[in-house]
Structures are given as C-alpha cells and as structure tokens.
Protein: DUF5672 domain-containing protein
Amino acid sequence: MKKVAVIVPIYKEPTYLEDISLQQCFKVLSKSHPIFCVKPNALNLNTTYAFDNIISFDDAYFKNIAGYNKLMLSGEFYGAFLDYEYILIYQLDAFVFKDELNVWCEQNMDYIGAPWLRHKYPDVIKAVKNSVLGYIHRKFDVKEKNTSVPTDLQRENKVGNGGLSLRRTQLFYTLTQRFQEKIKEYSLNPAANFNEDVFWSIEVNRKKQILKIPSYKEAVYFAFEVPVDRAFELTNNTLPFGCHAWNKNLEVWRPIFKDFGYSI
Structure:
C-alpha cells in the first residue's frame, strides 16, 4: 500500500489567494507525494498545475458547506483513495511551510487537524474546571440552551479542523459504513458544530476511543488556525507543518508569507 496522497478540493477557478495556497502545495509537497484534485463534475478546470489525477464527484457536493460535509462523510469519497494509507485534505485556505508529511504519517494517528484552541485561561483553577466540563459535555453530548446544537465547549482545545487534515483512509471508509445513522443526523443539520470535522474529532470518540487523535499540544505542531498568537506560544514561536484559514488573518500572516515569497 502507498503511504499518503494529497487531496485538493477545488470548487471553481481559484482566486488570487487560493492560487497562493495551490502554489505552495506544489512547491513543498509535489516532489515527494502525489497530489490529486477533487472537483465537481461540471467544472472544466483550466489549470497549469500538474495534478497526478483529477477526480470528479457529483456537483451537489461542491455547492455549499453542507454539500462538502456530505462528501467528507461519504464512503464514496474515501473509497476513491483506498490505495493510500493516509490522505491529506488540503483546502485552498491552507498553506504548508515544510514537508513533514511523512513524519506525521509515522506518528500512527488516525486523524490530525489544527486544534480548536482557546486563549490562555486566567488561572489553573479555571483551566481544570473547563477541562472537566469539556469532558462531561463531550461524553454526554450537552447541547446549547434550548437548542439541539452541541455546545462550543465540546470543541475547546480539541483536534481538530478538517481544512488541513491527515486521515487514515481505510478506517474512515469503514466508519462511514458503521455510523450511517449518525452521519445522516449530521448531514441534516447546518450548524457549525455538526460539520464533518466535528463528527470525526468528537462524535466518533464520544462513547469510547475509536480514532487515535493527538492532544492539542501535539497537534499544534501540525497546524495552526486561531488564535495564532496562542498557537505560537504553544510552539515557542516555531512554525508548524502548515496552517488553515490564513486568509482570515492576513495581517498576522503577511510578514511570514513574505518570507516565503508571497505578497498577501
């Protein structure tokens, strides 16, 4: 079995900022890893990038976030990549700083994404209290008051965001079959706490550990999202393998991207 493939979902012709993500993806990862594009059937992609393969799926998967969530929760998607032990999802708001992909594959984890960090707690008592509360909220799927939406506390300091994420392909494929009823529930709810990455990071492990997922203190070396200052604090100002949603924090990333040759 081959080790890992990079999967780039493309919905439409890339914008200027999305093209920066794509440039960096090929610059850093293409020498050692195959890079696949996944796209809607209807998109005639006019690209100069040397994708190893371009795979089309039903247009409905690419129309909105709900459609994309369904794709990332489908056996159809993971079944297309069963030749690879891992896939790296690389959305066009991701950016990699260095090729550590094999290093992360060797950690023997099943899922890794940017952790959902919170800002530093004011004191140890508050940190411990929220850690215990988070465990209880995840274990018993506590909802926001008067809603059916899981609390934000369930995601606090958990791993993590799916936009730049490493996934063990065969296991994910198997779990799409095993959790069909729960996946249907997630697919019918548009709230952010029902996004596909919440399913993989929280829902699958709610009753017992099924997916091996690193702690946020480990995963922060894989990828940053927000808050960036807290992430840098955790890594002692070391850049991670990559970052996600950098386009929403241009002021923070501008001087760093400049060092990599990009003007944002």
